[in-house]
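Dear support,

I submitted the protein below through the web form. The confirmation email said the job was done, but the results page showed an empty box. After a refresh the structure appeared. I'm attaching both so you can tell me whether what I see now is the final result or a partial one.
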Amino acid sequence: MKKIIPIISVVGYSNSGKTTYLEKLIPELSGRGHKVCAIKHDVHGFDIDVPGKDSHRLKESGAHTTIISSPFKIAMIADVEKDMNLSELRDRFITEIDIIITEGYKSDIHPKIEVFRKGIRDELLTKDDNTLFAVAADTETDTTVPVLSINDAKEMADLIEERFL
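What the results page shows now:
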């Protein structure tokens, strides 16, 4: 039976430090021997293929999917009909991973960590979200879930290991 890879979304208001926090959390989990997949959600769309390069030329020639492969990394560019949810992405593209950590996907159904900073907003983005399981903050917050330091990802990694790995 195929193991279901757990998914955790890191969410928060704009400029709350989500990426900075992930830059602490991912090495903490990786350093403990876990293979981490990071997914960044971009609602505005993006382009990673460089015009003029062979892979871009092949995609522009009409290929539905192109893959760039080297001994060190692989990238795939594919046309999609819709914005896939996290379960669809996991089930279609992700293997040999222990956990998926995302930035964004605040409306998704998977467990969430909210990054919360004093001075950005007065209340949690996820205050009414029953998928919130922890908050990484630089201040006290009114919530029933654990509130851990935004400056130290060790405690959050402990909590993730305990609940998901």
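Response: this is the final, complete result; the empty box was a page-load delay. The chain has two domains: 7-43+83-164, 46-81.
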